[in-house]
Amino acid sequence: MTHAIVLIQAERTALATLGGALADIDGVAEAYSVTGDWDFVAILRLREHDELAEVVTGRLSQLEGIVRTRTLVAFEVYSRHDLEALFSVGQ
User: Fold this and answer.
1) Predicted confidence band at 46 (pLDDT cuts at 50, 70, 90)?
2) Which residues contact 69 (CB under 8 A, 6 or more apart)?
3) In the chain, beta strands by DSSP E
């Protein structure tokens, strides 16, 4: 499985609707509206590494209102939720 974080800068006119459009893309597990230099963060969870280019350049960056993106590919994933689920098996 491939995990990636995509930072998204958007046009001001797209801020109200872009979050929902991001969340509707297959492979986008979560989309957040954020403060700072970027307007949105999309968390991608993909079965195959090869899907990354299709999701980011083929679908996500083609949405109307996106100015630019920066993609960070995760080497390893650490999650308290996953660890708690692992240790709660059989309890």
Assistant:
1) very high
2) 6, 7, 8, 9, 56, 60, 61
3) 2-10, 28-33, 40-46, 66-73
pLDDT per residue as tens digits for the range 47-59? 999 999 999 999 9
Give the separation between CA 32 and CA 30, rounded to whole angstroms.
Answer: 7
Asked if 39 and 33 touch (Cβ cutoff 8 Å), the reply is yes
- List residues bridging with 90 in a β-sheet: none
What domains lie within the chain, and their CATH numbers? 2-87 (3.30.70.920)
Segment 39-44 mean pLDDT = 97
Round to the nearest angstrom and report the end-to-end CA distance of the chain.
Answer: 28
Question: Residue 50 has what DSSP assignment?
Answer: T
CA angle 67, 74, 27 (to 5 degrees): 60
Ordered strands of the 28-33 beta sheet: 28-33, 40-46, 2-10, 66-73
